[in-house]
């Protein structure tokens, strides 16, 4: 392609660059690279040839002005720069989307340049050069993927995306107040947090708006963005995409989001999400994000109620996709599922078996670079995002950018995201329904019996409580062209009291057994208050935790805290103080469901849930690999382990990923001796745990 790589490297005798400085390139994404970065005013000494023409005369003056106050300067070595023209095709003020093939190609080119650099020094030079020439979001994405995958930088803690691009996570009004605060109040200690208005995107006339706290949650949207960083759709080096069970993880992570969303809907007296499966029908729900894009300097376009999809034809993005294409791809994917095999580009059959079938389907439906045949099966999920994101201006007649569905960091704010993914999930479930149900012997664990499970929170047994809480996030690194120093954004989000599990197990054999404990939670009644059949309930089972236990002969009590969950990342990862990064070095992964959203909201009068635990045989489930501390073993259930195999041999979602066996139409009949279920009531207290009061400012 015309994006081929020409890299000339010059040997460099000088000392190595400090790789931590690379992280400073994420700061203030739309300011020139020679401005001060980081909290301590670090300045990059940029070679003259690297400065863009616009600032050529200015650079030295500004540098003198900034450096005099600066505590440290970073020397940038001059090297021959590879050809970046391919990645520079996207304008600096345009919108970058990983769902667009032409944009992924540009990102892929830049990732290749960043990963091919032999030393951190050279990477720093190229990154400094590229930073002011390519689109800021494209730069952030490519550098993030490169840093996560280069052996010499993968231990770096990436700054949370919300700190660099706050415009993706807060409304325009708040953005303005934050700029005001930093401009007017010079000392950052005297600055007041800017409080996010609660429920600002719609009124209560909009039923969907009851779920604002889920869809517009900072941690939920960050999780989605970070997952797509760890699992890019395409990359120059196949190994970056081709991670263990990547397609299956695409299915499972999104399936769990839908299950968790449905529990939240029930908590708010709403029916389960209806799949958006007829592309000719108008989209009933509108969405008005009320957000401004800092890079594009204009508002995110809204979608009006009852918008119809139309064929998208936008030559400037090399983008043409029609509703007919989508229907064709859907038919072919369903046909492949029903026939039990897909065809690769040589017309060879690849069987969709019990173990790998779901993984192949994941890569076909998403579609990632690993799809065996993109001509035949297309790019279904990504193009669905694109059709919806451009539904307000499909032919670029009005020169409008994509709506929130066009970006992984904002898509989960829109109610249509869940309807689209419910439809995508139905395709996966069609395949799972064709597999033979797990029989008793596949589920049981001889000699091991789970006697009981209970949860305890604040002295109450099998009762959990949720409430609202305020937390601050420092977003100053993304506020460009304003005086430096911290500016806090204050969010109101769902939170729950910590709880612990107590599981009593009995090992009646003579030998020590190793068990894999799997804990799930699902609503007990459906939206009509009727008991659910397992066939429906299993699709609403949310994984809460999965961990290994050692069971010597006899009876044991296993206790586990809710904060140890294999699904979530610690609260401090979402809401954290920028200056305290040092303590968090061991949390290397920003990927994971936010801890504060672990359990559904429940209802003021209490909502009944079924808590399920299973202890399976770890000897059968374990994956042979040395578990050296990769620093990344936190949220393995949704994000896998970095550079490792997925730490469970069973299908993701086991034992609920297939139809229940005959005679176990309800959960009670499904249980084998190594399983147990108990009713848990989740109560919501409609109160807010506030932070220190701040004086009101108009």
UniProtKB/TrEMBL annotation:
Its EC number is 1.14.18.1. Keywords: Copper, Disulfide bond, Melanin biosynthesis, Metal-binding, Monooxygenase, Oxidoreductase, Secreted, Zymogen. It is an enzyme of class 1 (oxidoreductase). It is found in: Secreted. It catalyses: L-tyrosine + O2 = L-dopaquinone + H2O; 2 L-dopa + O2 = 2 L-dopaquinone + 2 H2O. Signal peptide: none annotated. InterPro entries: Di-copper_centre_dom_sf, Hemocyanin/hexamerin, Hemocyanin/hexamerin_mid_dom, Hemocyanin_C, Hemocyanin_C_sf, Hemocyanin_N, Hemocyanin_N_sf, Ig_E-set. GO terms for biological process: dopamine metabolic process; melanin biosynthetic process; melanotic encapsulation of foreign target. Residues 414-425 form the Tyrosinase copper-binding domain. Gene3D superfamilies: Di-copper center containing domain from catechol oxidase, Hemocyanin, C-terminal domain, Hemocyanin, N-terminal domain. SUPFAM superfamilies: Di-copper centre-containing domain, E set domains, Hemocyanin, N-terminal domain. One of its GO terms (molecular function) is metal ion binding. One of its GO terms (cellular component) is extracellular region. The keyword Transport does not apply. Its cofactor is Cu(2+). Belongs to the tyrosinase family. PANTHER family: LARVAL STORAGE PROTEIN/PHENOLOXIDASE, PHENOLOXIDASE 2-RELATED. This is tyrosinase.
């Amino acid at each position: 392609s015309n994006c081929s790589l020409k890299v000339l490297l010059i040997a460099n005798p000088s000392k190595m660059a400090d790789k931590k400085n690379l992280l400073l390139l994420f700061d203030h994404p739309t300011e020139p690279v020679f401005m001060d970065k980081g909290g301590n005013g670090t300045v990059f000494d940029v070679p003259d040839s690297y400065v863009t023409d616009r600032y050529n005369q200015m650079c030295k003056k500004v540098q003198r002005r900034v450096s005099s106050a600066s505590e440290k300067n970073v020397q940038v070595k001059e090297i021959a720069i590879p050809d970046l023209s391919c990645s520079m095709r996207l304008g600096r003020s345009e919108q970058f989307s990983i769902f667009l093939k032409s944009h992924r190609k540009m990102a892929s080119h830049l990732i290749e340049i960043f990963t091919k650099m032999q030393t951190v020094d050279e990477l720093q030079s190229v990154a400094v050069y590229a930073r002011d020439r390519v689109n800021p979001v494209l730069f952030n994405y490519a550098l993030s993927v490169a840093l996560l995958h280069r052996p010499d930088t993968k231990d770096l803690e990436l700054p949370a995306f919300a700190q660099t691009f706050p415009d993706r996570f807060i409304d325009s009004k708040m953005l303005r107040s934050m700029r005001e605060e930093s401009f007017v109040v010079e000392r950052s200690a005297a600055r007041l947090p800017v409080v996010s208005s609660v429920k600002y995107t719609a009124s209560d006339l909009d039923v969907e708006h009851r779920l604002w706290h889920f869809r517009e949650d900072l941690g939920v949207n960050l999780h989605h963005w970070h997952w797509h960083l760890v699992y890019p759709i395409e990359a120059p080096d196949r190994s970056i995409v081709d991670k263990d069970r990547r397609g299956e993880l695409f299915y499972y992570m999104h399936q769990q989001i839908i299950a968790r969303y449905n529990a939240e809907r029930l908590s708010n007296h709403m029916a389960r999400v209806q799949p958006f499966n007829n592309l000719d029908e108008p989209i009933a729900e509108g969405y008005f994000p009320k957000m401004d894009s800092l890079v594009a300097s204009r508002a995110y376009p809204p979608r009006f109620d009852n918008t119809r999809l139309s064929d998208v034809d936008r030559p400037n993005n090399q983008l043409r996709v029609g509703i007919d294409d989508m229907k064709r791809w859907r038919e072919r994917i369903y046909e492949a599922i029903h026939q039990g095999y897909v065809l690769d580009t040589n017309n060879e059959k690849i069987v969709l078996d019990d173990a790998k079938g779901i993984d192949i389907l994941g890569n076909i439906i998403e579609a990632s670079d690993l799809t065996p045949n993109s001509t035949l099966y297309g790019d279904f999920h990504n193009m669905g995002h694109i059709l919806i994101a451009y539904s307000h201006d499909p032919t670029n007649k009005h020169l409008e950018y994509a709506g929130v569905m066009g970006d992984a960091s904002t898509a989960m704010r829109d109610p249509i995201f869940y309807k689209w993914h419910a439809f995508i999930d139905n395709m996966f479930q069609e395949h799972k329904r064709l597999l033979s149900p797990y029989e008793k012997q596949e589920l049981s664990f001889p000699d091991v019996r789970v006697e009981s499970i209970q949860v305890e929170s604040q002295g109450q047994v099998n009762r959990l409580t949720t409430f609202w809480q305020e937390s601050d996030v420092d977003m100053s690194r993304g506020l460009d062209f304003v005086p430096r120093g911290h500016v806090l954004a204050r969010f109101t989000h769902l939170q729950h009291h910590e709880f612990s599990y107590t599981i009593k197990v009995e090992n009646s054999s003579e030998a020590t057994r190793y068990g894999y404990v799997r804990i799930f939670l699902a609503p007990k009644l459906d939206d009509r208050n009727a008991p659910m059949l397992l066939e429906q309930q299993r699709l609403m089972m949310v994984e809460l935790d999965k961990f290994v236990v050692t069971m010597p002969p006899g009876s044991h009590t296993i206790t586990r805290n809710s904060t140890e969950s294999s699904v979530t990342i610690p609260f401090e990862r979402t809401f954290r103080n920028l200056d305290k990064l040092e303590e968090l070095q061991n949390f290397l992964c920003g990927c994971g469901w936010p801890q504060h959203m672990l359990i559904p909201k429940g209802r003021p009068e209490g909502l009944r849930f079924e808590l399920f635990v299973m202890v399976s045989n770890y000897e059968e489930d374990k994956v042979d690999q040395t578990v050296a501390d990769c620093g990344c073993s936190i949220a393995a259930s949704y994000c896998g382990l970095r550079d490792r195999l997925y730490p469970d041999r069973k299908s993701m979602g086991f034992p609920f990923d297939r139809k229940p066996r005959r005679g176990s139409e309800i959960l009670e009949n499904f249980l084998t001796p190594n399983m147990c279920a108990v009713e848990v009531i989740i109560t919501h207290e409609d109160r807010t745990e506030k932070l220190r009061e701040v004086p009101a400012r108009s």
